[in-house]
């Protein structure tokens, strides 16, 4: 009878063999292995290990428009206290970049956390062993490396500058606010330097200083009707006005130009819109106001037929400002507009639940195209403006819903529109008062005004006209 271990020995033999080969390999290293340079797995603080740091350099990459691109400069990842960060190096030579990486590592590890906080804000300018560079030169190199991958070619730039289709733009964001800026060049290096300059001014001096100096790209939407939505929109590029220099009317010599005023708190947007209006034949903008208070004081003393007002004015937000101007100058037509970072933001903010939508892009020198048929008449009543706008959009899109009572509806204030909209949903006077946070007596007053302006004698008649508009 065979012993219990006789069958197991052949199974263990391969294990014994592997153990033997492992011991031999440990006792007799090959000649090729002994000649390789020994590279420590831990960097040294006292001596520069050229091989160690050269092996840890790499070229960072980014992806734009589906294409992967490698940056020209070297980068290194450094880990300390469980945190790993990537540093862009200024040196183009690999050997010099390796020494720069070692110096950064020493600055992080030796002094402790204080140095880490300082490195987060920019490049360490105290790398003594590198070729001499001023702190400004080091900052410019880092800023250019950051902004160059973020340069953009924006659409529709050719609407105002046919020869600038390849000009770069950049989106700058700070403290929850962001704008697109034109950079004025098609050279990537110069554009990146300009982008860095804009960002530095924003962070150090604020948005107001940057907006006065640099040109922004904005989308402006003119709200001709809200239900159905009938808006035109255009792309403008702001430019700072000269100090104490009012806009010059380009068509002041024409007979009876339509005089337009702009109410806008942003000086760059205000001046740019005035220039766009003066660039459209038959229109003249020689008057601008920074807020509704200024407009109320000045609109009575000037022959103005149309007022353009920002929907988000600081002193009179929403349509409250236009309602105030209507009460002061009832014979002056008015139009709201809104300013957006870009067209995508405009599309996302279009109100929902309306009967139809029509948004038409126009060149910046034709922003008042929907009321061009009223030129030469010397005045622009609200009812006539509404009919002109309706005819314009009918030509653009014939199926736009008809609006039999559009002339009468144009006379209603924003609050009266709100009351009538709630009446159309079957709200009682008390429910309207609660919804709008006004008294029931105020609701009665609005309903009376609605009857008079629409020339109806019942709530049913007013609601029918509202639903047909």
Description of the structure:
- The protein has 469 residues and is α/β, with parallel strands linked by helices.
- Strands 4, 5, 6, 7, 8, 9, 10, 11 and 12 form a nine-stranded mixed β-sheet that branches. It has a three-stranded antiparallel β-sheet with strand order 1-2-3.
- It is built from 18 helices and twelve strands.
- It folds into four domains: 51-130, no CATH class; 151-213, no CATH class; 237-400, 3-Layer(aba) Sandwich (Rossmann fold), CATH 3.40.50.2300; 402-469, Winged helix-like DNA-binding domain superfamily/Winged helix DNA-binding domain (Arc Repressor Mutant, subunit A, Orthogonal Bundle).
- The protein is elongated, with a radius of gyration of 35 Å.
- The chain has helices at 9-27, 31-35, 50-55, 94-109, 113-120, 135-147, 188-205, 207-213, 267-278, 292-299, 320-328, 343-348, 382-396, 406-409, 414-424, 429-436, 440-454, 459-468, and strands at 57-64, 67-80, 83-88, 169-174, 177-182, 216-226, 229-237, 258-263, 283-289, 306-310, 333-340, 357-361.
- Residues 1-34, 112-134, 242-254 and 399-403 have low confidence and may be disordered.
- Helix 6 packs across helix 7, helix 15 packs across helix 17 and helix 16 (429-436) crosses helix 17.
- The N and C termini lie far apart (108 Å).
